[in-house]
Design goal:
The protein has three domains: 51 residues; 104 residues, DNA polymerase, domain 1; 185 residues, Intergrase catalytic core (hpI Integrase, Chain A, Orthogonal Bundle), CATH 1.10.443. The chain contains 14 helices and eight strands. The strands form three sheets. It has a three-stranded antiparallel sheet, with helices on one face. Strands 4-5-8 form a three-stranded antiparallel sheet, with no helix packed on it. The protein has a two-stranded antiparallel ribbon with strand order 6-7. Helix content is 49%, strand content 11%. A hairpin with a 5-residue loop joins strand 2 and strand 3. The chain is mainly α.
Length: 371
Amino acid sequence: MRGHVRKRGTKWVVVVDVGRDESGKRLRKWHSGFERRKDAERALTEILGRLEAGAYVEPAALTLGGFLADEWLPAMRASLRPLTLESYSMIVRTRIAPEIGQVRLQRLTPGALNALYATLGERLSPRSVRYTHAVLRHALVDAVRWQRLARNVADAAEPPSAKAAKAQAMQTWSAEQLAAFLEHVGDDRLYAAWRLAAMTGLRRGEVLGLRWRDLDLEAGRLAVVQTLVGERTFSQPKTDHGRRNVALDPVTVTALRTHRKRQAAERLALGPAYRDEQELVFCREDGEPLWPQSFSRSFERHAKAAGLPAIRAHDLRHTHATLALAAGIHPKVVSERLGHASVGITLDIYSHATPAMQADAANRVAALLEP
């Protein structure tokens, strides 16, 4: 027999023979904490099965928080994009570690994960909770692969359903509402950023990662070659289609010229303390990159002050695409401006705008037949 159970104090323990060391001394591993004898016997059977299959994992005091922060996230740096790594780190730091980070990794249970999801659900959307589950499951898959765990308990947990976590309906502004917003922020230091986002459909990170050398104001064009992720981390666009040239309208070009003059005055006033390593178009008064979340919160404050329906900063991109399609601009052109991999993606996302295009097409074809 390679193991047995015994009572120690008020608890039952499992003792397993795992072989001998170099001197021939018998090696034993203890698994403790079982309330009942039959629970310990069940665990013994399971452990012996893993030994037989070569899948046995030795007991360890490593906590979930320690594994995630000290082993898993550092190992992910080589395979994840900076934005994804930052997202995972935020989830570990603000959602997982404060709630169950102190739990030993090998004592983590589906019930503990379900309790975590219930707690997070009191302050987060089902979509956010489900994403937290996805991150945990990814980490525990690696823990099993690295022989830190015998099985992935996340597979038996119950996060919010895919249906409950479905993304909210897209929110956009009308042309009149967008015009009202731009008028409201006309004197804002970042007016050119708001207008650029609205008139080009650039993503937030693309706007904040834009450098002056990426702009050709004479030709009225910009090149998307990097994106800001986090506070000071820059990354290349995810796809070849993301690296693109985008045409600018004359009013936006004028706004950018005015912004450059304002920025030059800020640089002159601050002198040597001004930091412009990246030569960013949109930055703080001292030249440092803007914090993306602060940019989004600023947009939301402006929208509220203007008395407009609440939308996210990212919804300026959706507004741009919706208005462009409704205006009859060819979907291929809209797709290229947005940096989508195919026009099919664009039409899928903005299918709400296509009925108007269908009606316009019907009217135009009918007009050809009129005398």
